[in-house]
Amino acid sequence: MNEIAPARIKTTYREAVRAAIRDALTADPKAFLMGEDVGHYGGCYAVSKGLLAEFGPERIRDTPLSESAFVGAGIGAALNGMRPIVEVMTVNFSLLALDQILNNAATLLHMSGGQFNVPLVIRMATGAGRQLAAQHSHSLEGWYAHIPGLKVLAPATIEDARGMLLGALKDPNPVLIFEHVMLYNMEGEIAADAGAVETGKAAIRRPGRDVTLITYGGSLAKAMAAAETLAKERIEAEVIDLRTLRPLDTATIIGSVARTRRAVVVDEGWKTGSLAAEVTATIMEQAFWELDAPVARVCSAEVPIPYPRHLEQAALPQPESIAAAARATLGR
Amino acid sequence: MGEFVMPSLGADMDAGTLTEWLKHPGDAIKRGDVIAVVETQKGAIEIEAFEEGVLDRPLVELGTKVPVGTPLAFIRTAGAPAPSPVPSEIKLPETPATKPVAPPIAVSVAPPAIGRRVSPAARKIAAEHGLSLEGLKGTGPGGAIISTDLPQAARAAEPRAAKKPGIDLGEMRKAIAAAMARSKREIPHYYLSHPIDLTTAQQWLADINAGREPPERILLAALLSKAVALALHAFPEMNGFYQDGAFRPSRPIHLGTAIAIRGGGLVAPAIRDADTLTLDGLMAALRDLVARTRAGRLRSSELFDPTITVSSLGERGVERLYGVIYPPQVAIIGFGTPAPLPRVVDGKVEPRLMMTATLAADHRVSDGHRGALFLLEIERRLQQPDTL
């Protein structure tokens, strides 16, 4: 008997995000997208290109250049029953809206004694690699992962780009989605009927038994490349994609490290006070007696991300530095 | 300089695993001090010192299984010179106390020489399996010993529940098998049996215990043990060891007391100098032994000291038991479960509390006639409980 293979389509990360927004707006009349240049310009990373014509200016709204104002407007809309998707051009600019995100979105449920929840989704680009220099290239998602009251997602694959937004819109509380700028052009195949995916769980993207590479977002592909290199040296690296940065899926991390006894945490944020530090500390707390080597971290150099291409690349985690750290945990 | 060696804790023990030091280098040691804990087939045993002095340095790493007789540590006896100080000791320069606010001086202090590095995982597995790290080559970062440097067998066995110190019933069964097989192979047993009237003793105990709280009460087992201990004064051929083709009587009377372990197995640790203890003292010793046996924490001397063994079935047993002598001892007394039975006393049938006592003894050392007299002496003493 022949099985009918599910239809698969070729797409990109960018198109997957766009398809998710289209799904969301189609499914729920209360959902809308707003942000700088999301309408007529089609989004600074062209994610929302074409959506204005499709849904009209009421639901694809260009905003003034004030992150504080339009994130605040999104919070207000959410409080009044809408399902806003707010796009912030890059995480660097989100700092202008940090007060709205931390003091209002993340806190109102608590401050109102549970009376007012904020079903807001904020999407923003993060990360370096496009030579956009120090004011447009940082990875600050670890800061947001510090804040109780927020969920922080980092889709690293096309499936997750396609599916995480839909799950986030169902959440009664604020969810931040970080899309790494280097992922938008990523091409791949997904099921034609791909839809919402489970969040809150990390994914083992490659099984292995010798060392666990723990990463997320834009560093996942680098960790996978490192694992490929290591495999040629007969080192079987397991690669964990955290997917959700808050709350962390500790069980998957600890389960893997307990098997491999070694961990390398890869994080494009700066090492000091990083998400990688949080993951490392969690391993120390919960898997110390399983370890055969100190936990290693591969993070960005502690400098503003440089503009020149060679310096920018030198400042970031790379497959070579990840592989070297993995080898070191094996005493090689 | 004396050596503190892995003792033999039974006729068939050939090795033990050092699991814990209770004294540390530099500690003063008195004879009888518990120095270390050794894991054996009989559980975790506390090992005592037989020399006075100062514990010098350990010679065996924790977790190492070594043959009986292996020196575990040196004990520096009085007058012996102290060894030269450990060379890696680092003396920090003293800061003059008169200048407490002086700016910190950049002093380059060499870090203490790092000992062998062992990963947390390797430490855990080695401890669980009682493995020695001695002689292992480390292949981890910086030459650290890691889990995969341990013998394959240990890693294959994981994951498993951490082994708690205490009694390994499987090992204990092996030890019992070896000792009992040797006994039946080597010792020509003869057996005697005699009914003993305990009515008087039981009444006397009831009177004594009437005013006592349960923890202070004296149980029949203590009375029986004391009677055996005192009876042995007149029967030295029952008390001692048959070794190297000859019997060596023992002046001290250390009563091996058979204690059943829940879940199976038994041990017979000694109540030392049982003949010199008061009934209360003997009862306390008995309670203590039972508690520590069940906790798997006996002392070395208690295991190799018994000069004779007493096995009481207690209240939930049968009429009589035929003991198997624990080599190299030469006798074992068995007490069955007391039960009310009709008995002729002064020409009349009366209900009396009766118990059957048995003796299994080594025919190489004694004969049935002496054995019978020994049982009668025990009976005689039990009729005068106030003298026990």
From TrEMBL, chain A:
InterPro entries xref list: THDP-binding (IPR029061), Transketo_C/PFOR_II (IPR009014), Transketolase-like_Pyr-bd (IPR005475), Transketolase_C (IPR033248)
The Swiss-Prot or TrEMBL record lists the needed cofactor(s) as:
thiamine diphosphate
User: Domain Transketolase-like pyrimidine-binding spans what residues?
Assistant: 11-186
- Name one molecular function that GO assigns to this entry: oxidoreductase activity
Tell me the protein's name: Alpha-ketoacid dehydrogenase subunit beta
High-level lineage = Bacteria, Pseudomonadati, Pseudomonadota, Alphaproteobacteria, Rhodospirillales
Q: What is its EC number?
A: 1.2.4.-
Q: Kindly give the SMART domains that the UniProt entry links to this protein.
A: Transket_pyr
Give UniProt keywords alphabetically.
Oxidoreductase, Thiamine pyrophosphate
The cross-references to Pfam families, in alphabetical order and at most eight, read: Transket_pyr, Transketolase_C
Q: Which domain of life is it from?
A: Bacteria
